[in-house]
Amino acid sequence: MSENKTSRRNFLKKTLIGAAAFTIVPRHVLGGSGFLAPSDHLTKGIIGVGAMGRGHFKYAGTKTVAICDVDTRHLALAQKALGGGVTEHHDFRELIQNPEVDIVHIATPPHWHGIMAVEAARSGKDIWCEKPMTRTIGEGKKVKEAVAQHGNIFRLNTWFRFDADFYGMNVPVKKIKKLVDTGMLGWPLKVTISKHTGFDWKFYWVGRENLPVEQAPQELDYEMWLGPAPYKPYSTHRVHTTFRGYWDYDGGGLGDMGQHYLDPVQYFLGKDEESPVTIEVDAPQQHSDAVGTWRKITYTYADGCQIVLDGAGTEKGLAYIEGPKGKLYKGFVSDIPDMERKLAQYPDPAPQMTDFVEACRTRQKFALNEQNGYYSATLVNLGLAALRLNRTLKFDSDKQAFVDDEAANRLIDQPMRGPWII
């Protein structure tokens, strides 16, 4: 598979250089499967076609040719939205092996992300994965290693480091990075992510204790939905949208929004290859199954930079970024005199590859990929580990392991229910 993929890739590059009329040649065309005509679209298969997965239909430059879900109702809704005519799969492995699929989109609960991404990488597919990248640090390592080994193009589906206004800041992240890079705020910096700086932690994503045992609906294969997660009796609140409130599948509001909020911070602080060394938590004791709320989680890097997740929201008037020379507030307002004029004199940050179709076509690494995405997913998972254990944790950024803490290190590589492995 690896050799075949490499030869296809070399042929693709030569073809594109010599024939500008071909925007993209799907890889199955080059694999001798009988399709001779070039196309201007990459083909994609989407695993998980609930509300989030159906949102993946719209992305330009790709054509959906296959869908997969363990809920037949979701499959029916997806076929209707697509106008029919796409291949249906119940088992994600069949979709990944489908020769008509160039890109695998993973829009399942996070407890499936690692297994599916690694399987797709091994099968020579490019990958577009929902956030968080993985539910554990160990699964993130495996995804990063698999993509590096097989040469896939990987995109994580959070876009704020390169596109759109960034929540309460009301400006693109590149403008924030530009300000940080000028040094006008000084160093080290403290970033506070709070409802008062424009970020909602969505604490309605909490689990319920003592869930009633119910009969799984006929349209849902609950056993396959659980997959590698520990077996728990079916309850309506455990699956689909509200799965976010249970440790086995996600991590509440932090699991849902953490990579959206934290990945841009990692980018503008220049921490794309580094993890914090201390994680402090202020929270009630968490339930073993149901995710609860928290008051504050504080990450501290070796150089003194901090990221503070303010869940309580009791402090008003906080700066979004605070440094020894100045502060930046919600709405890109600063206490630095004449900040906008001074900022205009500096160069913009280096450009990024932000077109996923172009990245696949030219085999260039996408702006948010398996490497920097691993580190921002690890930020989320470090916070969740501290929250579950309800104590301060020390982390070795070089070794990517907790320091002298067996209980915390067991959360890096969590056991999977057989027969699933990664």
Automatic annotation (TrEMBL):
Keywords: Oxidoreductase. It holds the Pfam family GFO_IDH_MocA. InterPro entries: Gfo/Idh/MocA-like_OxRdtase_N (IPR000683), Gfo/Idh/MocA_oxidrdct_glycsds (IPR050463), Gfo/Idh/MocA_OxRdtase_bact_C (IPR043906), NAD(P)-bd_dom_sf (IPR036291), TAT_signal (IPR006311), TAT_signal_bac_arc (IPR019546). Residues 169-421 form the Gfo/Idh/MocA-like oxidoreductase bacterial type C-terminal domain. Residues 45-156 form the Gfo/Idh/MocA-like oxidoreductase N-terminal domain. It comes from the Bacteria. This is Gfo/Idh/MocA family oxidoreductase. It comes from Sphingobacterium micropteri.
